[in-house]
Design a protein that fits this description.
The protein has 125 residues and is an all-beta fold. 0% of the residues lie in helices and 60% in strands.
């Protein structure tokens, strides 16, 4: 990665109760990711890789082009935000991975997506 490219990832996840069926081991989570380009070079997100681990330790790998059907260009100093989802068989799990990006010079680099939790919120009264 060139000195010009610096990308920061922020993730917010939440449980989607209205789409989940706990009795059928179906737990739906939404996550919103903000990708900030803190560098001096424009970048494009080309592909993604996810490692999703459910509460039983079962791992699922997901990879593909872009995110939510797009390969966004992110200007220097700009940001891109999208929301997607994951379905687990357990009420908690984790996700982590990386994006493959390319800068204005045509140099490809990886941006790590730090591990984040997917968990049903428990309400204590």
């Amino acid at each position: 990665m060139s000195d010009l490219a610096r990308v920061c990832i922020h993730v917010h996840s939440q449980y989607v109760e209205s789409q989940s069926l706990p009795d059928e081991d179906r737990y739906v989570f939404a996550y919103t990711i903000t990708i900030r380009n803190l560098g001096r070079s424009n970048v494009q997100l080309r592909s993604r890789y996810w490692l999703i681990t459910n509460g039983n330790g079962r791992e699922t790998e997901v990879q593909g082009e872009g995110v939510v059907g797009e390969q966004p260009h992110i200007a220097a100093g700009g940001e891109y935000q999208y929301t997607s989802g994951a379905i687990l068989e357990t009420p908690m799990g984790t996700m982590q991975g990386h994006y493959v990006m390319i800068d204005d010079a045509g140099e490809e680099f990886h941006v790590e997506i730090p591990v984040f939790r997917l968990a049903v919120q428990t309400h204590i009264h």
